[in-house]
Automatic annotation (TrEMBL):
NCBIfam families: ogt. The keyword Transferase applies. Its EC number is 2.1.1.63. PROSITE patterns: MGMT. Keywords: DNA damage, DNA repair, Methyltransferase, Transferase. GO terms for molecular function: methylated-DNA-[protein]-cysteine S-methyltransferase activity. It comes from the Bacteria. Residues 81-161 form the Methylated-DNA-[protein]-cysteine S-methyltransferase DNA binding domain. This is Methylated-DNA--[protein]-cysteine S-methyltransferase. It comes from Nocardia vinacea. It holds the Pfam family DNA_binding_1.
């Protein structure tokens, strides 16, 4: 946890309990937890506001009312490489879309040998849901590792695809 993460909340969501931490700049952590829901703690009112906004936006997302998060995020505790990977993922893989590790590797201008490094960067994502690493699949379209577990990843992909309209053949 960053020295500047000065507010904390365990939020009970329909997907499970989420630990959310924030500082005065923005949200620094969203992670699944076995902890029971708690009220927000912390002295800084701006940080607490970020927590409440994040929890509200996550709830809106999980009910299908929100497609994009606008809560401020503080990525300063991430390496430059991890930030680059997550920014590319966010910029190229919008709501209802998926990508693969290989495709993301190519979009970043990296060699196929770097796909594991890309996967490791995604595994270090401290802002689950807000930065959509759940949208990354294996080369064959299979579900692969996710910090919240594969059932949560499947639920998120299903949530985002629920309102897609497929053209009728004929």
């Amino acid at each position: 946890m960053s020295d500047t993460a000065i507010a904390r909340l365990v939020h009970g969501s329909t997907l499970g309990n989420l630990l959310i931490e924030a500082n005065q700049v923005g949200v620094t952590l969203v992670a699944f937890t076995d902890e029971l829901p708690t009220e927000s703690t912390g002295e800084n009112s701006t940080a607490r506001e970020h927590l409440e906004t994040a929890a509200d936006q996550i709830d809106e997302y999980l009910t299908g009312e929100r497609r994009q998060f606008t809560v401020p995020m503080d990525l300063t505790d991430m390496s430059a490489f991890d930030r680059e990977v997550l920014h590319m993922l966010e910029a190229t893989t919008g709501y209802g879309r998926t990508t693969t590790y290989g495709a993301l590797t190519r979009q970043l201008g990296r060699t196929p040998a770097d796909a594991r490094k890309i996967g490791a960067a995604l595994a270090r994502n401290r802002l689950l849901l807000l930065l959509p690493c759940h949208r990354v699949l294996g080369a064959d379209g299979s579900l692969t590792g996710y910090a919240g577990g594969l059932p949560a990843k499947r639920a998120l992909i299903d949530l985002e695809s629920a309102d897609l309209v497929l053209p009728l053949g004929g």
